[in-house]
From TrEMBL, chain A:
<feature type="transmembrane region" description="Helical">
    <location>
        <begin position="181"/>
        <end position="201"/>
    </location>
</feature>
<keyword id="KW-0472">Membrane</keyword>
<dbReference type="GO" id="GO:0000155">
    <property type="term" value="F:phosphorelay sensor kinase activity"/>
</dbReference>
<feature type="transmembrane region" description="Helical">
    <location>
        <begin position="6"/>
        <end position="27"/>
    </location>
</feature>
<dbReference type="Pfam" id="PF00512">
    <property type="entry name" value="HisKA"/>
</dbReference>
<feature type="domain" description="Histidine kinase">
    <location>
        <begin position="265"/>
        <end position="479"/>
    </location>
</feature>
<keyword id="KW-0597">Phosphoprotein</keyword>
<dbReference type="GO" id="GO:0005886">
    <property type="term" value="C:plasma membrane"/>
</dbReference>
<keyword id="KW-0547">Nucleotide-binding</keyword>
From TrEMBL, chain B:
<dbReference type="InterPro" id="IPR036388">
    <property type="entry name" value="WH-like_DNA-bd_sf"/>
</dbReference>
<dbReference type="GO" id="GO:0000976">
    <property type="term" value="F:transcription cis-regulatory region binding"/>
</dbReference>
<dbReference type="GO" id="GO:0000156">
    <property type="term" value="F:phosphorelay response regulator activity"/>
</dbReference>
<keyword id="KW-0597">Phosphoprotein</keyword>
<keyword id="KW-0902">Two-component regulatory system</keyword>
<dbReference type="GO" id="GO:0005829">
    <property type="term" value="C:cytosol"/>
</dbReference>
<dbReference type="InterPro" id="IPR011006">
    <property type="entry name" value="CheY-like_superfamily"/>
</dbReference>
<comment type="function">
    <text>May play the central regulatory role in sporulation. It may be an element of the effector pathway responsible for the activation of sporulation genes in response to nutritional stress. Spo0A may act in concert with spo0H (a sigma factor) to control the expression of some genes that are critical to the sporulation process.</text>
</comment>
<dbReference type="GO" id="GO:0032993">
    <property type="term" value="C:protein-DNA complex"/>
</dbReference>
Length: 486, 219
């Protein structure tokens, strides 16, 4: 069963149950009160009868005593009965009240019982007791009331009746009205509860739909739940979770895409030199060649083999960088950059490039070998970007707020604007022919980026085509001397 | 002489193809990127184009769209070995594809096949005083017909199409018999020897030590 229907039915059931119970209790107690009142009235009537009878009898006895005194013969029990009958007739003449008078065995002495009543009540009662029974005669309800009396040393019961059909009719009327109210409550309440349930369950429904969408991997749209209750909270949490999830998924997809591209590029980069190597080797083994040709072909094979070697080394660096933990050390910026400068200087000089070092002192928190790789890679790129005369490369280092900045700028060919975002991708080369000609594998900047990640630093490129390129490496100041990285 | 345009951005590979195609007797024009290839195609006519896919400026697929109306057969050269890439190339109307790295003999065989499909190969092949009419499959030695078995004829064609190239026994076996060469077998030697004897080419088709045979032709 759906939660909606559970909610709906439980609310309906609870409402109906309690309204029903309380209605029943109300009607029943008012009924009981009414009956009790009627019984009390019946008793009172009985009492009144008794008292008036008693009075009458006393009076009669006195009269008869007087008569006796006057010599009227004693007539025994019959006489009393006569007196009773007389008294009774007085009592009943101008009233609709049925009264009967019976002895201890329930035998009616005078008056008459109402139709349908018998002596059972009287027989049940002992001395000094009074009692009642309620019977339904035809369509009428009657209280039959009996009272023990002792008159003239004889035991009698006075019985009287009271019609309480009205009480029962009222009771029935109440029940009918109540049933109607219950029915109405069921209908109206049903509609209201249906709406309330729907309103309560709707956010859950929305959430469930969203979850399903998410499970199917569709685009995640946030769930719109405006309430501030637990469900609203849940929806908010769900949205946050979904957001994170889709972010992660995007990241994963992106990672997978990059990985795929990497493998594809790697495949291409591997096959290109292999094609040459296999091709030239094939020529060497199957063709007759002059010595000069042989040397030329062999040289090609060596060149291409070297290219593979460079690539494998760089790849190795990349792989190692992604796995290993590196300990960063504090070194003097001046000392470090000067050693870099000295390493690269001969190559620059050989190419006839003016190589300028502008180095401020500072503290660097780096893995020196890795950072040296970055600097040499960048300087190498700068050198390769320059052709012709008047080449100039500047290696500068300066303290900036919260860290240290190393920058390498050249006045070489520059990088087209559209390519700037791609240059750190593995195997990406802006100018393939140029890069190959100078022994590039397209991995240098990928390695630099990976190293900067190890240092939690930032590498940024600025370039204007045909004017030059400036690469900035920002190292953040890390106060703790010995920080574990990655 | 068939004219072939080679479009390939890797200089060493371009040079490799050029050398071998020239040796095989084709006229070869080279282009290093798509744009250059398009420029050349505007002014010259070719029998076949060898086209690399990953090219700077205009890539192979794009260039293919440009070439298609010219009705010049194209063979793709590609390092991409994924099926989808190959299917894409073929759907664009390429005649064939060659996956890098490739062997020279394979390249020549595919070029030959495509040219034959377009009836652009020379009808007659010849070496010394032997001529072969590839249409009627008639082999003549000094003008007189020589009868060869089907296998001998195929082997002869293979040598004629790969002059000065050492043909390895496994290569010969695979291309003539169409099966994998399973090591030590004298079948190839037997057929080669009988064929060259029938044509009197004993001194021209020479054994290459431990490898196979080579048809030597002085250029």
């Amino acid at each position: 069963m759906k939660f909606f229907w559970k909610l709906f039915f439980s609310i309906i059931l609870v409402t109906e149950f309690f309204v029903g119970i309380s209605g029943y209790v109300l009607i029943y107690s008012s009924f009981k009160n009414a009956i009790e009142r009627e019984i009390e009235t019946a008793y009172q009537e009985n009492d009144m009868l008794y008292f008036s009878l008693n009075q009458r009898i006393t009076w009669s006895v006195e009269m008869s005593n007087i008569t006796l005194m006057w010599g009227i013969p004693e007539e025994g029990t019959e006489n009393y009965e006569e007196i009773l009958t007389e008294a009774m007739s007085i009592q009943t003449t101008d009233s609709a009240i049925t009264v009967s008078f019976s002895d201890a065995e329930g035998q009616v002495i005078c008056g008459s019982r109402k139709k349908g009543f018998d002596a059972a009540l009287v027989k049940k009662l002992g001395n000094q007791e009074r009692g009642y029974e309620i019977r339904k005669i035809d369509d009428d309800y009657l209280i039959h009331c009996a009272r023990y009396v002792k008159l003239l040393n004889q035991e009698y019961f006075i019985e009287n009746y009271r019609d309480i059909t009205e009480v029962f009719d009222n009771q029935e009327g109440y029940i009918q009205t109540f049933s109607m109210i219950m029915g109405l409550l069921f209908l109206v309440g049903g509609v209201v509860i249906f709406i309330i349930s729907y309103w309560l369950v709707r956010p859950i429904h929305l959430l469930s739909q969203a979850t399903r969408r998410l499970a199917e991997g569709d685009d995640m749209k946030p769930v719109q739940v405006n309430s501030r209750d637990e469900i609203g909270q849940l929806a908010e949490d769900f949205n946050r979770m979904a957001g994170r999830l889709s972010e992660n998924m995007e990241a994963l997809k992106d990672y997978a895409r990059r990985q795929e591209m990497f493998v594809g590029n790697f495949d291409h980069e591997l096959k290109t030199p292999l094609t040459s190597i296999i091709g030239y080797a094939d020529m060497l083994r199957s063709k007759r060649m002059t010595e000069e040709q042989t040397v030329l072909l062999a040289n090609q094979i060596v060149q291409e083999g070297k290219r593979l070697q460079v690539m494998s080394e760089k790849l190795m660096q990349l792989t190692v960088l992604k796995r290993r933990d590196f300990k960063l050390r504090r070194v003097s910026a001046k000392y470090f950059l000067t050693s870099v400068y000295d390493t690269v200087f001969p190559a620059m000089q050989a190419d006839g490039i003016r190589f300028i070092g502008e180095i401020q002192d500072g503290k660097l928190n780096i893995e020196p070998d890795l950072m040296k790789t970055v600097c040499i890679n960048l300087l190498d790129n700068a050198r390769k970007a320059i052709d012709g005369k008047n080449g100039q490369v500047i290696l500068s280092g300066k303290s900036i707020k919260g860290g240290y900045e190393i920058s390498v700028s050249d006045n070489g060919c520059g990088i087209p604007e559209g390519e700037l975002s791609k240059i750190t991708e593995a195997f990406y080369m802006v100018d393939k022919a140029r890069s190959r000609g100078r022994g590039g594998a397209g991995l240098g900047l990928a390695v630099c980026t990976a190293i900067m990640e190890v240092h939690r630093g930032k590498i940024s490129f600025e370039s204007v085509q045909d004017v030059g390129t400036c690469v900035r490496v920002d190292l953040v100041e890390v106060n703790r001397d010995d920080t574990d990285q990655r | 002489m068939n004219r072939i345009l080679v479009v390939e951005d890797e200089k060493p590979i371009l040079e490799l193809i050029r050398m071998n195609l020239t040796d095989a007797g084709y006229a070869c024009v080279c282009a290093e990127d798509g744009a250059q290839a398009a420029d050349i195609l505007e002014s010259e006519i070719f029998d076949l184009i060898l086209l690399d896919i990953m090219l700077p400026k205009i890539n192979g697929y794009e260039l293919m769209e440009y070439i298609r109306p010219m009705n010049i057969p194209v063979i793709f050269l590609t390092a991409k070995s994924e099926v989808m890439d190959r299917v894409r190339g073929l759907k664009l109307g390429a005649e064939d594809y060659i996956i890098k790295p490739f062997e020279i003999i394979e390249l020549l065989a595919r070029i030959e096949t495509v040219l034959r499909r377009y009836n652009k190969t020379a009808r007659e092949l010849s070496v010394y005083d032997v001529t072969v009419d590839t249409f009627s499959r008639v082999v003549k030695k000094a003008g007189k017909p020589v009868s060869l078995t089907a296998k001998e004829y195929d082997i002869l064609l293979l040598f004629l199409r790969n002059k000065n190239i050492a043909l390895f026994r496994d290569r010969i076996y695979e291309s003539v018999w169409g099966e994998m060469y399973m090591g030590e077998s004298r079948t190839v030697d037997l057929h080669v020897q009988r064929m060259r004897k029938k044509l009197g080419l004993e001194s021209k088709i020479v054994p290459v030590y431990k490898i196979g045979y080579r048809l030597e032709v002085d250029e």
